[in-house]
């Protein structure tokens, strides 16, 4: 029984396989004749807007387009080449409904447009207004410890903006992009862009402004005390005797080094260079330090008595 079934199946097997292949080819051919749909998103362009006018309302950035055609034709479509536009030629000021059109030259032959959504959009046309507005710098954070943010100067102080009349009339100033000063330790000039969030408002000329951020170092006034005064530049044949006194030293010190600045970083002395004979002298106390940012305000006393005596020959 099983043998008879097998013989029936394999009888004229080559004809049966040929029939199957022909049926498959026919199915593929018929399927290729059927049209399919393809969904794409197309940016909307505004064409032929009258001079001195501008679209003032928000319009869709893109529209959804349904295209229809055979697979072989749809395969030739490059979405980037498809153009959607609104033609405002001969349009006047005011609000109106306009049709979104598709440039058929950007679509291969054999492909049809089934649907555009939205097909009609509301457009408001206004006259372009220009206005000088103030530039406001936006400063973020604080400078490092020991420094002060003192002031900021913009150049130019005003910029010319343009856009729809209804929007520009309410604008008095524009902000810069954020200016971070947390690492600034000196006055710095930066080129900074302007932060205009509404794309309908644009700059007539300048795209950036020069911003001068004035940073000044913080100083503290600190009183220190010193007990030892030395004599310098003394003739080698002389001896100098300086009365033991405590000297009050008033210093102007950068705040950033206040805690680490100590007695070891400065000294007091009297200059004996011009003394050429023994005697009693009243000499000024001289302050000296290797820290170039530390300055002396005053010493008390400001001078000291020095006794110069003759020394023995070496």
SSE inventory with pairings:
Layout: H1 2-10, H2 13-33, E1 36-47, E2 53-55, E3 62-69, H3 71-74, E4 84-87, E5 94-99, E6 101-102, E7 112-117, E8 120-140, E9 147-155, E10 158-164, H4 165-168, E11 173-180, E12 188-195, E13 202-203, E14 208-217, E15 219-226, E16 229-232, E17 238-242, E18 247-254, E19 266-271, E20 279-284, E21 286-289, E22 295-300, E23 303-310
Parallel strand pairs: 1-4, 8-11, 16-19
Antiparallel strand pairs: 1-3, 2-8, 3-7, 4-6, 5-8, 8-10, 9-14, 10-13, 11-12, 12-14, 15-18, 17-23, 18-22, 19-21, 20-23
Essential attributes:
314 residues; mainly beta; RNA Polymerase Alpha Subunit, Chain A, domain 2; 3 domains; 9-stranded mixed sheet; 5-stranded mixed sheet; 23 strands; 12% helix; 51% strand; elongated
What does this protein structure show overall?
This protein is mainly beta. The protein folds into three domains: about 80 residues, RNA Polymerase Alpha Subunit, Chain A, domain 2, CATH 2.170.120; about 90 residues, Beta Complex (RNA Polymerase Alpha Subunit, Chain A, domain 2), CATH 2.170.120; about 90 residues, RNA Polymerase Alpha Subunit, Chain A, domain 2 (Beta Complex). About 10% of the residues lie in helices and about 50% in strands. The chain is built from four helices and 23 strands. The strands form five sheets. Strands 2, 5, 8, 9, 10, 11, 12, 13 and 14 form a nine-stranded mixed sheet that branches. A five-stranded mixed sheet has the order 6-4-1-3-7. A hairpin with a 7-residue loop joins β11 and β12. The chain is elongated, with a radius of gyration of 44 Å. About 10% of the residues are buried.
């Amino acid at each position: 029984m099983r043998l008879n079934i097998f013989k029936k199946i394999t009888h004229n097997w080559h004809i049966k396989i040929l029939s199957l292949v022909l049926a498959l080819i026919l199915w593929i051919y018929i399927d290729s004749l059927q049209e399919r749909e393809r969904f794409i998103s197309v940016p909307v362009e505004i064409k032929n807007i009258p001079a001195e006018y501008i679209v003032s309302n928000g319009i869709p950035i893109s529209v959804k387009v349904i295209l229809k055609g055979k697979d072989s034709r749809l395969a030739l479509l490059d979405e980037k080449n498809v153009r959607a536009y609104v033609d405002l030629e001969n349009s006047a000021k005011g609000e109106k409904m306009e049709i979104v059109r598709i440039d058929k030259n950007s679509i291969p032959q054999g492909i049809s447009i089934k649907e555009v959504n939205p097909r009609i959009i509301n457009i408001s046309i206004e006259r372009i207004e220009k206005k000088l507005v103030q530039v406001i710098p936006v400063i973020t954070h604080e400078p490092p410890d020991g420094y002060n943010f003192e002031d900021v100067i913009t150049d130019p102080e005003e910029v010319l903006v343009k856009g729809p009349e209804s929007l520009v009339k309410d604008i008095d100033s524009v902000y810069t992009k954020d200016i971070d000063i947390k690492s600034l330790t000196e006055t710095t000039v930066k080129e900074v862009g302007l932060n205009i969030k509404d794309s309908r408002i644009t700059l007539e000329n300048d795209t950036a402004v020069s911003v001068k951020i004035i940073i000044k170092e913080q100083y503290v006034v600190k009183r220190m005390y010193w007990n030892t005064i030395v004599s310098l530049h003394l003739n080698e044949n002389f001896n100098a005797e300086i009365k033991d006194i405590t000297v009050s030293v008033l210093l102007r010190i950068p705040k950033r080094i206040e805690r680490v600045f100590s007695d070891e970083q400065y000294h007091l002395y009297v200059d004996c260079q011009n003394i050429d004979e023994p005697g009693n002298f009243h000499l000024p106390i001289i302050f000296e330090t290797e820290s170039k940012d530390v300055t002396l305000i005053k010493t008390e006393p400001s001078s000291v008595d020095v006794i110069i005596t003759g020394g023995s020959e070496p």
